[in-house]
Amino acid sequence: MKLVLASKNKKKLAEMNDILSHLGVEVCSEAEAGVDVEVEETGTTFEENSLLKARAVMEASGLPAIADDSGLCVDALNGAPGVYSARYGGPGLDDPGRVRLLLENMRGQMPRTCRFVSVITCCFPNGDVLSARGECEGTVAFTPMGEGGFGYDPVFVVEGGKTFAELTAEEKDAVSHRGAALRKLKAALRETLEGAKEC
Ligand code: IMP
Questions:
Q1: Which has the closest alpha carbon to 7: 33, 43, 44, 42?
Q2: How many angstroms separate the alpha carbon of residue 70 from the centre of ligand 1?
Q3: Ligand 1 centroid to 85 CA: how many Å?
């Protein structure tokens, strides 16, 4: 089965193929499916935005589509940046700028507990929808550490004291929100595929 990924992010494409290829599922890019969909993320939850993205790409391509909506939720900031993680501080900021803004907003704040959340949704042309949520608990570092990853990875400290940016891709996948959501979704997809074979 082929799933079209509702994202231009090559890292997400590789991560999804790594985990789902064992099921005989191939995840391809929007470009490979011949679509280029801009989705306005108007939802207020990860679930809503994930569904909006997967449904839009499924409708445009006519193929089953998969989308991830994710972000960092910080307790001392009442869950911010949350679903606005990619847009935190406005369009003028890049990843390092958003990390600097987060550290400024966290100055003097306690506790520094936070979690990454990922909701992955699959939409099928027959109307079926599968969705899975993964979370990873951590704390906000006082200063960025590590060179790997992307986004808020340099300031997200996981159990053991390292930031996501200090882990290898395999180490991050094993504990990350996206890894957890993908593994749950993989189990649901396996059931769906086996059910389809039996019919
Ligand atoms: P989305 O692509 O609209 O779901 O935006 C997710 C945003 O959340 C990204 O731009 C990052 O800022 C942040 N984010 C989500 N997952 C991660 C991660 O694994 N590491 C670092 N930042 C992440």
A1: 33
A2: 5
A3: 6
- CB distance 154 to ligand 1 below 6 Å: no
DSSP designation for 14: H
- What are the pLDDT digits (tens) for 133-181? 999 999 999 999 999 988 999 999 999 999 999 999 889 989 999 999 9
- Kindly give the number of the ligand 1 atom that is closest to the alpha carbon of 172: 19
pLDDT tens sequence across 176-199: 999 999 999 988 888 887 776 665
* 159: Cα within 13 Å, side-chain hemisphere: 6
Catalytic residue selected from 18, 69, 95, 173 = 69
Cα four-point dihedral sign 82, 7, 92, 94? positive
Residue pLDDT, tens place only, 116-138: 999 999 999 999 999 999 999 99
Angle between helices 10-20 and 177-198 (to 10 degrees): 50
Check pocket membership of 152 for ligand 1, CB cut-off 6 A. Answer: yes
DSSP 8-state secondary structure symbol assigned to residue 158: P
Catalytic, 69? Answer yes
71 lines ligand 1 (CB under 6 A): yes
Determine the 3-state secondary structure of 146 from DSSP: coil
